[in-house]
Design brief:
heterodimer, A: 329 residues, mainly alpha, two-stranded antiparallel sheet, B: 341 residues, ABC transporter involved in vitamin B12 uptake, BtuC, two-stranded antiparallel ribbon, 2 strands, disordered N terminus
Chain lengths: 329, 341
């Protein structure tokens, strides 16, 4: 259960110490890489780290939402690919006519969000209504979305989006911040509010920590599961469109390793696969950790293959740390 | 408990229901497979050509071997996402070992091959052991432990030669084993059949087989009844790793080089699909390797049929994904009907 128990003082101190491990890890990693290579501290690289973190943060939040509900979304990466291709195709098709840029971008964004919602509704209804293991349902939709993304695009990048799309989601600024960072902050605050201050948010934690108890207490479990997967996939769609704007084309391969990376960020941040824990904050912390790590490894020229190994070890270590944390509780 | 083992009742209605149940449990797959084969024979005469049948059997056998391991882990209530990566790593390790051994012991193909096979099997065993320890001792969920080890294993496979295929294997390994046909059947089929017979024996006649069902069916009960659950859970992952390594060896011998692109996500997915379509429950405790073999053949025939009918290869994962979800949904509905009785 998520309800804080009247913990005794020493226990609480220990608990918060374990919670400090990750922020301390981020700082130590960053300092270590900065010592190894002064370029790490350059303003260009710092902005780069923030941009990269904001992309991953969106996907990590998407993954965290379903992990709170004791679920998992393996189809996150292919969903991002599908949204990238689908929204780009919609905008490219409309670009042939005489419509204004604003209309085209609006339709493109709606198409992307709609595609995301569709995948989420599919996952959520199979998982919520039939109560089938989320792992396998999303393994199935992983393939379906991959197939759709490559079929729609024919395997090639899709180009021809209006300039406004790039300005809005990538090159533009909002309140002095680059657009991706501003959007990620807004989405993070919105999710924080939804999780902490709404009936849906409270229900989500209940369903994740004890679905049966939630059902007995009159929480609409199926509806909450369905909404969680839809919300998650819409966030994924948002992240996918920002990545599309940055890349400059709709890419069937944009999802790549996002499923694994988002899960790594969510879990390392402190969401637990046993359900009922996690927040926008843990997603942010986890994303920052992973990005600082991979940015540093890139700068000191560690091969991508070694990075795969490190990522895998971190996922397992993160879960192990989480087990220690829950045992402490 | 498997559904077929439900006690027969005297009343004919209950008998009918049992019949319907065993039909739904074991009957759909053979019917689907038979109708698919008949339809393909009518649709395209090339389907029954020797080359095509060999191809189907070879792909089906390779998939079946990985799926057997996956099934054992699923039956014990686990999950093995790392099988595809193990196939890749075993292939690379085998090839690198044989290339090295080939220069150290020229003219001694048997020694070279034995070393390569040993190294590949050792790799599979090691990764399986790590998976098993993560799950059984450190009590990390099987899904996450193997998600992590999948990334690590594939990363190592790519690291060894930076993703470049490894050539220089003994010719006899390729011609007399990988591409060989014994009595008209591809060599992979014999190995798959041998493993099938062995595992069917393990499942029905040994303590290991029974304990895997017990652990997957109800872990608490298994612990209480004194089963060393950790040991058997680890055994399941080790067997899965070994079998994935065997598949890596078969593919290496068939193609004639070690490649990190063997296996991968697709094989991992297909192994789970084959197990689930073959009636292995994701809740653990249920499933027979015989049905898994049948469903591997089914998937192999299906993808062959889609190729012959010129269905876009990009659409094929959609079809496999849909079949997978239908299979788990059916399993769930069947299970619920069984529980409600």
């Amino acid at each position: 259960m998520n309800i804080p128990s009247p913990a005794t003082q020493p226990e609480r101190i220990h608990f918060s110490l374990l919670q400090l491990v990750l922020p301390a890890g981020v700082v130590i990693l960053f300092a270590g890489f900065a010592l190894a290579d002064p370029r790490v501290m350059s303003p260009a690289n710092l902005i780069n780290i923030l941009q990269q973190t904001s992309f991953l943060f969106l996907f990590a939040m998407a993954q965290t939402i379903v992990i709170i509900a004791k679920g998992f979304d393996l189809s996150l990466g292919p969903t991002a690919s599908m949204v990238s291709v689908g929204s780009a195709l919609a905008m490219a098709a409309l670009g042939q006519g005489h419509l204004g840029g604003a209309v085209i971008v609006a339709v493109g964004l709606a198409a992307g969000a709609g595609l995301g919602a569709l995948v989420g509704a599919f996952n959520g209804s199979v998982i919520g209504l039939l109560r089938v293991t989320p792992f396998v349902v999303t393994l199935g939709s992983f393939n379906i979305a991959t197939g759709i993304a490559t079929t729609l695009s024919g395997g090639h990048p899709v180009q021809g989006m209006p300039e406004l799309f790039f300005q809005l989601l990538s090159t533009g600024t909002l309140l002095g911040l680059p657009a991706p960072i501003a959007i990620a902050i807004a989405a993070g605050l919105a999710l924080h509010f939804v999780l902490r201050r709404t009936v849906f948010g409270r229900g989500l934690y209940l369903v994740g920590s004890n679905a049966r108890a939630a059902e007995v207490a009159g929480v609409p479990v199926r509806l909450i599961l369905l909404s969680a997967y839809v919300l998650s996939s819409v966030l994924t769609a948002l992240g996918a469109m920002i990545l599309t704007a940055r890349t400059g084309s709709g890419e069937p391969s944009i999802g790549g390793t996002l499923s694994l990376q988002s899960a790594a960020a969510a879990i390392v941040g402190g969401a637990s696969f046993s359900g009922g824990t996690g927040s926008a904050g843990t997603a942010l912390l986890g994303s920052l950790f992973i990005i600082v790590l991979s940015n540093g490894m890139n700068l000191v020229q560690i091969s991508g293959y070694v990075q795969m190994v490190v990522l895998g070890v971190i996922v397992v270590a993160g879960v192990l740390l989480d087990r220690l944390r829950t045992q402490q509780n | 408990m498997t559904i077929e083992e439900a006690p027969m009742n005297a009343s004919s209605r209950a008998g009918l229901r049992t019949f319907a149940r065993s039909l739904s449990a074991a009957g759909i797959l053979p019917i689907l497979l038979t109708s698919l084969i008949v339809a393909m024979c009518i649709a395209d005469p090339r389907f029954f050509g020797v080359a095509n049948v060999t191809n189907i059997l070879r792909n089906g056998s390779v998939l079946a071997i990985v799926a057997f391991g996956q099934a054992l882990v699923l039956i014990a209530g686990g999950f093995d996402l790392s099988v595809g990566a193990i196939v890749a790593l075993a292939s690379q390790i085998a090839a690198v070992t044989m290339r090295w051994a080939g220069s150290a012991f020229p003219e001694h193909d048997a020694v070279v091959i034995a070393l390569g096979v040993g190294a590949a099997l050792g790799t599979g065993l090691l990764v399986g052991l790590v998976n098993g320890i993560c799950v059984a001792v450190l009590r990390i969920s099987g899904f996450i432990a193997t998600l992590g080890s999948m990334s690590v294993t594939l990363g190592i496979a790519l690291m060894i030669t930076n993703g470049i295929p490894v050539y220089g294997l003994p010719q006899s390994f390729i011609t007399q084993f990988g591409r060989a046909r014994w009595l008209e059947l591809p060599s992979a089929a014999y190995i798959a059949i041998a493993i099938l017979v062995l595992l069917a024996f393990v499942q029905t006649r040994t303590a290991l087989g029974r304990y895997l069902y017990a652990i997957g069916g109800n872990k608490e009960a298994a612990i209480v009844s004194g089963i060393a659950t950790r040991r058997y859970q680890i055994a399941a992952y080790v067997l899965s790793g070994l079998l994935a390594a065997v598949t890596g060896l078969l593919l290496t011998a068939l193609v004639g080089s070690g490649q990190a692109s063997f296996g991968g996500d697709l094989m991992m997915l297909q192994s789970i699909a084959a197990a689930v379509i073959g009636g292995v429950s994701l809740h653990g405790g249920v499933g027979r390797v015989g049905m898994v073999a049948l469903s591997a053949i089914f998937l192999s025939v299906l993808s062959n049929a889609l190729n012959l009918l010129r269905v876009d290869s990009r659409i094929q994962p959609i079809i496999i994904g849909l079949i997978l979800i239908c299979a788990v949904a059916l399993d769930e509905i069947r299970r619920r009907g069984f529980v409600h009785d």
